[in-house]
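Tutorial, part two.
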Amino acid sequence: MTIFIKNEAIIIRSLTSEDELEKLMTLENQVWPADLACSKENFHLRYNYFKDGFLIAVTPNGKTVGSFYGIFYDYYIGRGINWHIDSGDGTGSSHSPNANSMFGISITCSKDAPEGTMRSIVEAWKLLGKKFNKKYIYGGSRLCGFHQYQGSIEDYVKGVSSGKLFDPVLTKWLACGMKPGAIIKNYFEDPESKNYGVEIYLECDS
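Running the prediction step on this input gives:
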C-alpha cells in the first residue's frame, strides 16, 4: 500500500487488495445513477488490467469518500480525446505501460466528502503519474452549463477558463489545477453540454 496524501481530513492511498473493490463499488452506486455507474465486472477488469491505477480516499475514521482509476496512454496537448477508445470502453484494456501519460478514466466523490477532497485526489493522481515517470495526467470534462449559453463553444470555454463564466464541472477541474486543452466534438451524448467536452491536463512536474 502506498499513501499519496495524508492530512487531518483525508487519506488517499492505493488499494490493499482486490477485496477492497467492494468499498469503491458501494461508493459508485451511491453517487452515480444505475445507467452511468461502473459495473462490478468492469471494476474487476480494471483491477486485472492495471491495479496500480486505483486510488481510494478515506477519512481518518475509515469512511470511503472518493475514488480514482486511471491507466497509461499516449497524449499530447490538443490531440483530442475519445473516452471509449482511450479507456478501452471503461475497462482499462487500453492500458499501455510505456505510454507517456496517465489518463483518468473515473473520479468519484461522495456528497459528504471533506472540502478539498477532489483537489487532493487530483494531486494524488499527479503524484501517481510522476511515480511512473509520466509527462502528463489528462482527461476530459463535460461542459454542462453550455446549453444555457448563447454564444459559441470556443467563447464559452474561454469565458469559463478566465473565470468570467461558471460551469458546474469545468470550473471545479480548473480549481483543482487542471488546464483546458482542445475542445472535443461528440465527446459523448450529453444534451447539457450539446455533446461537447474539453481536454483537461496537467504536467506531472508542475
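The longest strand covers residues 64-73. In part three we will examine how such features are distributed along the chain.
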